[in-house]
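for ur thesis appendix - C2 domain-containing protein. copy paste whatever u need, i formatted it the way the template wanted (i think)
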Amino acid sequence: DPYAVLTLCGKQHKSATVSKTLTPTWNETFEWEGTLGDLTSESLRVEVFDKDRITRDDSLGVASVSLLDLRKTREKVVEAELSTKGSVSLLVTWTAHGETPPVDPALMKRGRIHVQLKSAAGLKAADLNGKSDPYAVLTLCGKQHKSATVSKTLTPTWNETFEWEGTLGDLTSESLRVEVFDKDRITRDDSLGVASVSLLDLRKTREKVVEAELSTKGSVSLLVTWTAHGETPPVDPALMKRGRIHVQLKSAAGLKAADLNGKSDPYAVLT
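the 3d part is after this line
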């Protein structure tokens, strides 16, 4: 049940507690007032705790974030590794009194975030046959997309692409939530785990490859891209190279018998 405590220049701020998760999303903003020199002379301390009702709250790890970059730039995107396990995503900005908060014109551009849900691996087995029937639900800015269900596997491949439309600033201000479920015909679908994916990197680059660890077991592979209206989606130069794909047709087994002798005279057509 994680919450975070942020400390700078002796002043602390405490976040809300998010219950029963290893991938909390807060989207809370805190501020400290002072001179740029004083505020950036110390590192920001971020400590995450597990909320306990009876015993003392346990520390889940600490991160120290240098703010010296704010002496050169007004905004800093941070993915801070915790001292134990995991990381914390932050967006830190500096605004002098009398100035409006910095707004990058690029953040006001409208466009689409495309998320290619590629595959998952090492999923939790939810069924008696030692498998699951997994599908994924992706949520961003209140809009959900649901993938197809892949039957009887712990390593599903989807290769489905979903998109969200809006400004770059709005779409990247929240984390993408990915939850994988096991499809059940009779009982309620079981959750196989949740992952929270920060999209702040898209403010600097148009493409982000993600291997997101699920909260229970396994991981999900994603390719996330940003395309502003009027622009063409980014293309990997490697995809433009010409060459050949070689397919060695090796063998087949357990084919259907088509002839009266209980055999077949098989050949294959590759298209």
